[in-house]
Queue: 3 jobs
Job 1
Amino acid sequence: MNAAYIEAYRSGRLEQSLARASRWMSKCTLCPRMCRVDRMAGETGFCKTGKLAVVASFGPHYGEERPLVGRGGSGAVFFSFCNLSCQFCQNYDISHGGEGSPVGPEQLAEIMLALQKMGCHNINLVTPTHVIQPILQALLFAVAKGLRVPLVYNCGGYERVAALKLLEGIVDIYMPDFKFWDTETARELCGAPDYPSRAREALREMHRQVGELVCDESGVARRGVLVRHLVMPNGLAGTAEIVGFIAARISTRTYVNIMDQYHPCGMAFFNEAINRRITRAEFNQALEAARKAGLTRLDNRPGRWIIDK
Ligand code: SF4
């Protein structure tokens, strides 16, 4: 199975998507924040990113889900800044502080090619929503120079469906977070009360484009959706509702990673409700809710971060 963007490159669809993304970025509407700033001219909006992507780091990553890691690792590219910016972000210095260096499209293409050369099974674009245009531009160079491995869109779930449509036939694997179910929680923790509805719409669109996760004979992911859900203290994530939605409205065969690694970061130290790790009981409840909802493909890794009590 070839990576989807190869055909998109041949047919001209990749170039068309890039042209449209460039137009949108000159009055930026690439995400639900709809800042309408001219990023092509260097202006910045909520995500503090202008024309060029800022990259914090890149390299083979072995901590991702097994279907992404395989033997060669997942080729992660960590983009700086974020269109969601949660108070508790587990990469706070990168997403809020913007640690990293601006890279041009040819340089970003070279990063992708270097990861492929290192034996990574995929290019894992971490926090890509606000840099869709630079990614598409880099892909044009990278495909021409031989990029072949699947593209993973590893996002926070705060997406515009219209922008996701630019990626149809280009992204092979979508890996969105589904963080909160409740609008007030989303308003308080990331200033985005529309997050839950945007995440639901996004997940439907991603599933429509690429379907359930499909792996090759060695268990390495080639195409499909993989959802991540971080269990929060005090039931703040709305886990039961989220897994219920995925099972009922997407598919019980959706690959879901229920994650236990929440720990206070960034501004979470100043918010009593989220200023602790989760307990084993909270994590077990989350897993039970997922099983009860009927989900049959749960990522199965031992809990490392939970408090035993
Ligand atoms: S991508 Fe950035 S500038 Fe564009 S709408 Fe979203 S937050 Fe605003």
Job 2
Amino acid sequence: MVSRRAFLGALALPLFDPRGFVAAMEAFQGASATGAAPSDAARDENLWRFAQDAFTVDRAIINLNNGGVSPAPARVQDAMRRYLEYSNTAPAYVLWEVLGPQREGVRQRLARAFGCDPEEIAITRNASESLETCQLGLDLERGDEVLTSNQDYPRMLTTYEQRARRDGIVLKQISLPIPCEDPAEIVRRFEAAIGARTRLIHVCHVINITGQIVPVREIVEMARARGIPVIVDGAHSFAHLAFAASDLDCDYFGTSLHKWLFAPHGTGFLFVRRAKIRGLWPLMAAPAVLDGDIRKFEEIGTHPAANSLAIGEALAFHEALGAERKEARLRYLRDYWAKRLRAHERVRLHTSLDPRYSCAIATVELLGIDTAAMQKHLWARHRIHTVAIKHPEFEGLRVTPSVYTTLGELDRFSDAVEKVLRDGLPG
Ligand SMILES: Cc1ncc(COP(=O)(O)O)c(C=O)c1O
């Protein structure tokens, strides 16, 4: 529960804190001081109101697609604007001599949050850039196989498909159980698909279309024993799940920061284990002197400093919420709607609600109701934004609340779904 002092203090602040950021920081610091377990703090609506108020979201709509890209708290937007305005005072000086070097501070903060050496973190524009650096930067020969699943992100699959056309590599995709409550089965399927020419495994930490958490550490361990590198797509895991690099023990990990860290749009990072940096080519050419330097992955020409520097402010917000508390709240919000809807006979969840296998993201199918039509209906009639997922093996609405989502908004979503289950879609 929020301490009385933090609560009253926060109430007194709005005059001086129009963006609600200080109030949120104080409220969450107060919650930390009480020592409340994350699962208890997750249910404290007084506390999460401060997080809700830190955003400038449009409350005329209900945005349940926070998996795609997230809004940033007002304070993060302010920081970005500040850096942008400063950059424009004298760009050649400010960008390259003042703000550019400040990137090192962000690198250090990110490394601390991910639990690695700052010399293993490259700041990128998104998960796509981070992952494609690995996908295109590892040497592969004609006929070499890349092993992945049919639930990987389309752009990452497109990258391998292009490499197949260009370099003659072979892309092999396995099917995974949906949902999966037996992590060993996922490892088994990858292991069983390894052949004499398998040179690389590519795997999501959290699968975007179902929210399934994948046993990355076990896959890395199994592959390492066979000398096969693993690229981990962490687009949906960093700052969503509370974990550290050592929990995965992987060599390559790419993520976006505009999803779960709530950093400015167009931010991400690439982790490459130190010993592996030299063996990975950058996407854009870098001088030989940088061969063993993580900064070779940042040689992208002139680019804004504002986005990447404002990551610092997003990290401060994330740290104030607390990684464990945030994960618990996200799971609580998911359970709030999913446990209500699963009581209906015609509701099929494609996501396990076991906390070990999922968090904020869940995908729900309404049997007998076309998913795309349902998604359109929710938007047209209720201004509720969800994502229609159509995969060869399943379909459903992907529903992703975030820390700014209120229980009332989730009630409105569930009411709208129940009405359709009762009455069908309007003609
Ligand atoms: C699993 C996964 N990988 C990679 C990406 C690419 O992220 P971005 O578009 O931020 O580069 C996404 C985006 O949704 C994703 O869900």
Job 3
Amino acid sequence: MAEPVRERKKPLPEIVPLTQPFWEATAKKQLVIQRCSDCRAWVWCPRPACVECGSERLHWTPVSGRGKIFAFSVIREVVGRSLRAFEGDIPYVAAWIDLDEGPRLLSNIVDCPIEKVKIGMEVEAVFEEVAPGIFLPKFKPSN
Ligand SMILES: [Zn+2]
């Protein structure tokens, strides 16, 4: 019996009330991160309360979208059916980005030859529409 045809769609973000402001901002090509109104800590990933002081007074705050590559990995192979949707992107770069404001995000490096990607490289956010109205922040070298 033939194996059923499997969907090869990439997973989309699950947009819930907690994360909705983030996705509304990326749709406007802006990056926002939660910030604590009591201790001023940046909070990433989105949470209902501050990781430093426990305050629930968190506010979505615009950030520059600029930062540096902290670490990266070049993905040259996908393993497992759930990742087949990414086969067409190989090779691609997954990276931790340290934003100038401090938070560290996991994303992709785009618009850059893989051999040019370096730790410490200055990058800036770009926004890729992956489904109608849903924009993922990715990063490209700064000019
Ligand atoms: Zn706090």
